[in-house]
Every structure is written in C-alpha cells, then in structure tokens.
From TrEMBL:
Signal peptide (residue range): none
Domain Amine oxidase, chain residue ranges per copy: 61-548
Species per Swiss-Prot/TrEMBL record: Volvox africanus
Official protein name in the record: Amine oxidase domain-containing protein
InterPro entries: Amino_oxidase (IPR002937), CrtISO-like (IPR045892), FAD/NAD-bd_sf (IPR036188)
C-alpha cells in the first residue's frame, strides 16, 4: 500500500493484440526474473543442502532486511525464497518490455539519515546500499467532493480544504497539525532500529534516548493508542477531514483511524506535512529496491536461494528449531536460528501442530486477517497523453460504508511516468488495485482454469477499469497488454494465507507479538510481527528481529554507525 502485491494471470478482454496474453503464468514468471542469476541462487534438490548460522524463510522486504543486517553483524545467513524472483510482495516482472510491479508504489524517507529516517533508510545505510531516488511531491486524488492535485508539505492541504470544505475545515486542519506536531516529534525520538526483544532494549532504546523521552513529557505515551483518539482530542469534526484521515490510516495499516496505531500516523505526519518534504521513487521501481537489499545481503557474505520452497521447519527432540526442509529435496541446517518472514498463518503450516504450545498455536491461528486484493496491470500506448500525467492516483468512489468497503478505494500507479525505461518507448505501464478490500470468500474453491473464475475476474475488475478511466478515459482503447490478479493469485504467488494483506490487529484491542516465539531457535519478522504492514513496518520488523539475536554492544555500534 503506502509503501504493499507476482507474475499475475493474463486475462482476455476485447482489446487488440490479444495473442500475447495466452502465455502460461509459469513461463511468465520465468521471463520475469529481474535479479541476475548466480549458481547459489539456482541450486536444486539435495545440492541445496548446507549448514548456516541463520536461515531466513522468505525474501520479502522484512526477510531481506533481517538477513542483510545479520550478515553485516557477522553471521552466515541463507535466505530461502519459494518464488523464482526475490522481493515477496515487492517483487516485479517484465512482459513485452513493460515493467510491472506487484505491490509498493509510494515511498518516502529512504534517503533520510539520522533518527527521522525511515527504518528502511536505516537498513540501506547499514548495508551500504545507495538507491537512485527520484524526488517528487504531488499525487492526484479523486473523491466524491471532487478532483484535486495534492502536494505533500506544510501548507498545500489548506488550499485544498478551503476549496472543497471552506474556512471552518481549514481551521480544524490547523488545529490537528498543532496537535500532531509534538506527537510527530515524539514518534521520531526512538527509531525502531533501536529496539530489540530482550532486556538489552533498556540500553539500546530506553537508556540511549532517555533524555529526549523525558523532554517529550507524555507525548510518547499517547502514541500507542488508536489514531482516532488523537482526532477526538483535537476536536476534529469535519466529515471530509475524518474521512481523509481514515483513508491515510487505511493506506498505512489496512485499518481505518480507529484501528491504526497513532505512532504510525504521527510518523507519516512528520514525513509528509512539514516544509520541504518530498516523496521518492527508486529508479527501476520496486525491483531496484529489492536488488539493492539482495546486493547488501551478498556483499556481507549472505546468500539467497531462489525457487527454494520451505516445506517444514525441523525441530530436534527438545523442540528447538534446527533448520528447514526444502520441497524437492535439500535441507538447510541452522546453528543459531530459523527466522520466518512468512505470515503468522503460513508459519504455522510449516510447524508440527502436536509439538507446539496449544494456547500459542491457537492464538496465532486466530489472528484476524485483512481481506485480499484485486489487481489490474496494463501496458498501454501513451500517444497524445498529457506529459504531466501523475505517478499516483487515489480514487474513492464513496465515503458511505467507509474506506474498507469492497469495490470502493482504487489505487493507481503509473511508474513509467517517473522512469520511462520501465516501458517501451511511447508506452506506459500501470498498476491499479483494490487495497485489502476484496473478500477471499468470493473466490474460495474456484478452479483458476474454469469459466466461472474467468467470469468473476472480469466482473470484479470492472471497478479497477472504471477507476483508471477517471484518469485516462480511453484506457481500454489504448491497452495493449492486460493482466488481472485475484485473491487466488495472491495466495498462490505470495504463499499468503487466503491471499491476505496481513493481520488486522486493531490498535488498542490487541498487540503484535514481535519476533520471538515459544519454540527455541525460531523467530519471526514481517507484517505479522510489527504494526503497519507496509514497507517501513516490515523493514523495522526485520531490523528488530536481527538486533534481538546479537549482543547489545554490536547493536549499539550499529546505531552509532548509522547516526541514530
């Protein structure tokens, strides 16, 4: 979402150049490999058997951040990825010269330094990775009140509010900004990379930043509740502002303001609603980010094994995790730890249920889940389009029923307007999706080769076409290559339980469990362990997991090195 989605399935529609859409998804995935191959990445069968200090299951952003940092800390790290392409929900692929992204599209804070930088920025700095980042500051919004181009920064939204809501709304927004100012500052006091899940946190986080925490008074304590309480405290009543903050909260966490932790929104305010701020797009798209993390992992001695699906986590006779067994043969033994970057539900599938603490297993299995996605990928002719076409577009069809209602919010990204190399000359690539609002139940049990599945894809993707048409009215005529992804595609290619975006743990009603488990030697990172789901959150989860496994003094030295 703001910072989260696979070689999608081709679909047939009544547009020209249909013949190139009948390729199989399997060959499409092979064509899509964007990371240079190496012998270690492509080993098969028993040739993949090896011994390492740490094995990480999954090369999503969280897994790569965790594995890269542990490699920097000096451990032998092996990352096992089920797909033929690294990146998890952030991976991308190419078809006919079009570069398609499966997930993230809106980034910020990657170039930052010091405490206010994005957690991903901290990891990139630690690994010595520099991305070629393109700066910009605008995005297009289509809401029931009208269309407007918004610019992140200190004062642009005042102009928008004055136009669509009037001076009273402007006054409320000013009041909210005033209420958020100390909270935004407090959110940046203790960077997530300073945390660890053991008593050492008293030194690396609490002790290191105690003077600043004392100075902040009670502001830091207010960050742990739902953001809706901050809106109530600031007496925000304007319906558009409340809806807008629900939307931003939803894009950050998959939940509206009453379920999103205030710290996450405060951090966003610190990045987006201050003078001279900007968004960042990595040249080459999400694959450039993934490739940077892979290179950081390998530069420090870590290894990545693609097409290496973990069938199960091996436990010894005392119940401790000792490694993983791979589908098709091969076993990776881990001397120190096994770390799962899979979702909580998919992690449980790799563990023998009869050897787990029953209460822990049941609690984790019952973790509430966000719904899934619909995706529409289009390669299209850009002839005659306005050259100032925006990268990002958000379409809200109605506020009735809220932003989490199915078939409502449509997010659109056209990365080739920022980096023309991502599409053939004179063309653009586009990704539109329903962000975590598509019910899995509609798709459960369908055969992906059946007429019923094809018909449902056609039906459920129409809202995406309609959303894109609000930006490019003749998109159906321009389209040359079309692919549609469904919850079943999500489930299949991301190995995600029910194709879910991630846990729907509402702030104030539950807690994310962090990286530790009751199984000795088994740790977790990713969106099931840390609030937020998007890229900053999963990067933070990977860093926290890695820090938990190393001595406090090594962690302290890393914080000094990255300037926090």
């Amino acid at each position: 979402m703001l910072s989260k989605h696979i070689g999608w399935e081709p679909t047939r529609t009544n547009i020209r150049a249909r013949s190139n859409l009948t390729v199989s998804i399997r060959s499409q995935s092979r064509d899509a490999v964007a990371v240079p191959s190496s012998p270690m990445r492509q080993l098969t069968g028993d040739a993949r058997s090896l011994e390492t200090d740490v094995v990480v299951i999954g090369s999503g952003i969280g897994g790569l951040c965790c594995g890269g940092l542990l490699a920097k800390y000096g451990y032998k790290v092996t990352v096992c990825e089920s797909h033929s392409i690294p990146g998890g929900a952030a991976h991308s692929w190419m078809r006919d010269g079009f570069h398609f992204e499966s997930g993230p599209s809106l980034y910020s804070g990657m170039a930052g330094r010091g405490k206010e930088a994005n957690p991903l920025g901290h990891v990139l700095t630690a690994l010595g990775v520099e991305l070629d980042l393109i700066r910009y500051n605008t995005w297009n919004v289509v809401v029931p009140e009208g269309n407007f181009l918004t610019r992140i920064g200190n004062d642009n939204f005042y102009e928008v509010l004055n136009k669509i809501r009037g001076p009273e709304a402007v006054a409320e927004w000013a009041r909210l900004q005033e209420a958020m100012r100390p909270l935004a500052k407090a959110a940046a006091l203790m960077p997530p990379t300073a945390f660890r899940y053991d008593p050492g946190v008293l030194f690396t986080a609490i002790g290191r930043y105690l003077p600043a925490l004392i100075q902040s008074g009670g502001d830091a304590a207010r960050l742990s509740g739902p953001f809706s309480t901050i809106l109530d405290f600031a007496d925000i009543r304007d319906p558009f502002i409340r809806n807008w903050m629900d939307l931003l909260s939803f894009l950050l966490s998959g939940l509206p303001a009453n379920g999103t932790i205030a710290a996450e929104v405060a951090y966003m305010f610190n990045e987006w609603y201050r003078p001279d701020c900007y968004l960042e797009f990595p040249r080459g798209g999400s694959q450039a980010l993934v490739q940077g993390l892979v290179e950081g992992l390998e530069r420090h001695g870590g290894r990545l094994m693609l097409s290496s699906h973990v069938e199960k986590v091996n436990l010894d006779n005392k119940g401790a995790a000792t490694g993983v067994a791979l589908r098709g043969g091969g076993m990776v033994k881990a001397k120190k730890a096994v770390i799962s970057n899979a979702s909580v539900w998919d992690t449980l599938k790799m563990l023998p249920p009869d050897r787990l603490p029953e209460q822990w297993r049941r609690t984790r299995q019952e973790t509430p889940a966000c719904p899934s996605f619909m995706h529409l990928h289009i390669g299209f002719d850009a002839t005659g389009l306005d050259p100032s076409l925006e990268l990002h577009h958000i379409v809200v069809n109605t506020w009735t029923g809220g932003v989490t209602a199915p078939q409502n919010v449509v997010l659109i990204s056209i990365p080739s307007v920022m980096d023309p190399a991502m599409a053939p000359q004179g063309k653009h690539c586009l990704h539109a999706y329903l962000p975590a609002t598509e019910p899995y139940e509609l798709w459960k049990g369908l055969d992906r080769r059946s007429p019923q599945y094809a018909a449902l894809k056609e039906e459920r993707s129409q809202v995406l076409w309609a959303g894109v048409e609000k930006v490019i009215p003749d998109i159906r005529k321009r389209a040359e290559l079309v692919m549609v992804g469904t919850p079943l595609t999500h489930e299949r290619f991301l190995r995600r339980h029910r194709g879910s975006y991630g846990p729907a743990i509402a702030a104030g009603k539950g807690f994310f469990p962090g990286p530790t488990t009751p199984i000795p030697g088994l740790y977790c990172c990713g969106d099931s362990t840390f609030p937020g789901i998007g890229i900053p959150a999963v990067a933070a989860s990977g860093a926290i997991c890695a820090n938990t496994l190393v001595p406090v003094w090594d962690h302290w030295k890393l914080l000094d090195e990255i300037g926090v």
